[in-house]
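Can't attach files on this board, so I'm pasting raw text. These are the components:
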Amino acid sequence: MAAGSSIDALGQFELHPVLGALGESLRFSQSPMMMIVAALLVLAFLYVGMRPAAVVPGRLQAAAEMCYDFIYNMAVDTIGVEGKAFFPFVFTLFFFILAGNYLGLLPFSFAFTSHIAVTLALALMVFCLSIIVSLKVQGAKFFAHFMPAGAPKALAPLLIPIEILSFLSRPVSLSIRLFANMVAGHVMFDMFAAFTIMLAGLGFFGEIIAVGPVVINIALMALELLVGALQAYVFAILTCIYLREAVAH
Amino acid sequence: MDKDNDPSGESFNRRLEAARERIKPRKAAERDTGGTMSDLGLVIRSGTELVSALVVGVGIGWGLDHWLGTKPWFLIVFSLLGGVAGVLNVWRLVRPDAISTKADGPDGGPGRL
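---
Top answer:
Structure tokens for the assembled complex are below.
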């Protein structure tokens, strides 16, 4: 990626056709391929994990059950009893994003969550679902939320646009947060890796100093493991919060 | 329920009650998930909340100007409104009573965030 003395930190996000001629004709790039891999990984984890269906679970089954419980508790604690209906949606979102973030950390891999097209699509899905649920549960009362109760009527022309903008900023903040964090992490990896190569070309002392960026990259990998899980968690918990507001009467 | 072979020796009714208690929606104070995960989540969220409303405001203002041919006016108005909405977002996130997870803020706005 970084050839010679130039750093091309954004080249890693470019999409290329994969799988030879077939992928070329289908315009099939790394991004959908990694999405399929992520989805299959999660499905395989749950299927293989839960196949024994033992009363006393083995390690893999215990992991699968813990994941289930974690999201189930998150959904029910945040949304309330209605959260049971949305639990599969939140579970899918969380593990799809988590798998995408972590798969992107593997060498020669691609993080599909680093594309705003992907994260915005996910965020709009959540946003549209929350609007549909709001309209179904609250009906026309939903629109009353845009006028803060108790505020003077004269301020309505100012307050209502602000509330609407605040509401419309939800999918944007959801998508930008995930996308920006993933891009920043991968750009930093690329930068420090490029520093290593550039320093190594400076002779004996350069080769010694070049160890520095490698050490930093190892620390960054730990940070990115945290960020990957945290971003998936934040995405899922915000989905729950938006849905709770939607089902609240 | 004539066969009750639970080792704890509790009656079935009592266990049923305990199970029902568990699946009940918890009260606001108990709902706070606590822990480092949600604290870190709060920190990560606050920055983007501020910017995203501004992005939406500028986008809407620019779009309206482009559509209606009123060049700078809608952009100016909606940039300001977007900035205000961004501050409102952050305020909803960090205000002292934001921890109790009520469905609606006391001001009746669409809850926190």
